[in-house]
Amino acid sequence: MRSRGLSRTEILSALPGKSLSALDYQLFRTGKRFPRPRGGAASSWSEAELSLVQGMLDEGMKVPQIAIVLRNKLPREIHAAVHHGKLHKERTMYKSDVWSAEEDADLERMLNDRVPDENVLAALPDKTENRSSHRRYPSRTKVARPRLWSDEELATVEQMLRDAKTVPEIAAALPGKTISQIRTRITYGREKFRQRYRKIQHFSKEEDLRLRELKESGAPWSEILTAIPSRNYRSLTDRWNYLEDKESQPHFERHKQEWSAPEDNLLLYLWANQQLSRAIIAGVLQRTKNAISQRIEVLQSPDLTLSRWKGFITHRVSRDQAIEISNFIRTELAKPGIIKLDDILAEFDGNIKATVPPRHSQSYTPEEDDLILRMRMEGRAWKDIADEAIPGRTKQGLYQRWMRLKQRESTITAAAESVR
């Protein structure tokens, strides 16, 4: 039947037990198609076909039923025409988006009378269901944002406030502003608004001198605010606290100065050997904690771990000298007043110059090897050996040398036994 060019209606009449969907699926699976008109792979829509489909859609017919009537159109072509093609444009083109006053009145009257939706659409033939629904539930009306305050309006508000005018009187003088807007503007204040968004400006030397003179004379903050109108209360109080801290702490500006070699040595000693906190070290060196942390990161070599770094510092000061320096620093810290950093650096630098130079890169002598073996047999700790017996050597270096000596001794013993 398909080869003879019969339509689907004729095929369905010959096959009473089959449905239209089953026929479409069978034709799709076998790759058979209905004959198309000449002129290309896809047929074009004529005005008569569009009108016919429009009428069938208005009658409530579905796309498969319309496809039965239109023998030269496939269901997917009708779907495309309805949803994405010319038919969709033709269906919505004549629907008007503009509502007249009479249509609004009729719609409001029918809604108040609880008229069904079908009757509403019948009474408004040129309106679709979506347009009626959107008109029935309109979106919120957009409210225009209030314009910004101008300098003239702000000056007017300030002047009227100085003249003891009320908010309604100010609103009457400013026709473009409401009472709530004026009350909000007065609550936040012009100065607070400008201080929030203005560019931050540093205090000048003249302002610092003026602030210092007023505070030393005992003037209250209200007079200071009047004398320095470009600053608010918070900025003035913060600046005064900063100036007081700068005077009470001599090391307040020392973090900007360069580090000297004695300061580096003292910093490494206090941090590595004495395990002091950054706050105490900052008090000794008269610098900020942030400067101490940054300098420690600079002095720490990336190829040295913390333990090796501590050992590198340990060999520079003997045990007796470390005790002497620690006692001197504690004595200086206990003294009232300002810490004498120059005395601490001189004492520490002098002790360092008197120490034995580092020998961790030099070869071990036979006397040192004998001393290492003898003291280990006595049960002495590596720290005691490095500080007292062999100054200039690190604990790690002494331990590695002892392991090599033990390995050499075991090798010699094994060779002697093999000869026997």
From TrEMBL:
PANTHER family named in the record: MYB PROTEIN-RELATED
Q: Which residues form a coiled coil?
A: none
Superkingdom of origin organism:
Eukaryota
- List the GO molecular function terms: DNA-binding transcription factor activity, RNA polymerase II-specific; RNA polymerase II cis-regulatory region sequence-specific DNA binding
Protein name per the record = Myb-like domain-containing protein
Highest classification ranks of the organism: Eukaryota, Fungi, Dikarya, Ascomycota, Pezizomycotina
Q: Which GO terms describe its cellular component?
A: nucleus
Query: Which residue intervals define the domain Myb-like in the entry?
Result: 203-244, 356-406
